[in-house]
User: What shape does this take?
Amino acid sequence: MSDRRAFIKDLAGAAAGIAFVGCGLVDAAAAQAQTGQAARRREVVVNGRRVKTVDVHAHCAVPAAMALMGLKVAPETLVMSVDRIRAMDEQGIDVEALSINPYWYKAERDLARELIKIQNEKLAELCAAQPDRFVAFATVALQYPDLAAAQLEEGVKKLGLRGVSIGGSVNGEELADPKFHPFWAKAESLGVLVFIHPQGTAEFEKRLKGNGFLVNVIGNPLETTIALSHLIFEGTLDRFPGLKICAAHGGGYLPSYAGRSDAGCVTFPDRCTKPLQKRPTEYLRQLYYDTIVFTPEALRHLVAECGANQIMMGTDYPYPWTKTAVDHILGAPGLNDAERAAMLGNTASGLLGIQGIQS
Assistant: This one.
């Protein structure tokens, strides 16, 4: 058996419990699979030096865990694991950090414990089978903060997962609520990256219904904006200064209008009764963000507000927002070579424990 066939066999076995959903779309990688043509792996170079690229925002699902809550992945949306790697090769993505959007926050404690165990073990199995292409964020039952803390520790220390992914709120409760302090304390002590991804809230659905998919297009970045603002103003980031938090979708709207947060406390000091250790905008430079903003100017502005070293490449794969995440960074105005390399993969490699290019 050839090395290529052995690779496919091993990967298929490890990925048997993972669903690489594809939104019902046939992308270029799938088309190549149908024609039998392999995608050539794109190597990304900055000023003559090869950069290991890391995608911090890429989704998957574990059907066996979803089944515990009566959910299933539609067959027409499934993408084979080999096709997933073909897509990465074509786009110039060396490593994907896999995450699962929370759907289990209403589950009872015992069910949540079983569900998370299945998910994290399947994620770890896939990453162990292909460690040069995949790492993963642990999933946790954040509705039970003590359980979530234990699940995070097990996921990191026992299963080798590289961080944790959570929603932007938990059953209507803000992440800055003191009830979640045990989870934040554990994340800080472990020194791992916390990836916050919005999941939609019932509060937005009424006003955002109608044409334009506004519940996602507007609602998702709005949820992230609210979550980050509470973490700042409620003092969570002061209480746990070592937290490493990455906000999806470029941090929502916060980096684009953060100056109003500073002005608010100056103009209405009676509304800012909890003293902060620094101005609200200063916290932006201790958070991390993905690059899922949609124009060169938007990315340039995100760098200006937050710093290039705080920004990491994201694709939101398999959702078809963009297949040009690498070129989005390479083509952004005003960046030097070190800043581009940081955003393409150097920062993420450091945070996720990914080895760099071997010289």
About this structure: Confidence is low (pLDDT under 50) at residues 1-14, 22-36.
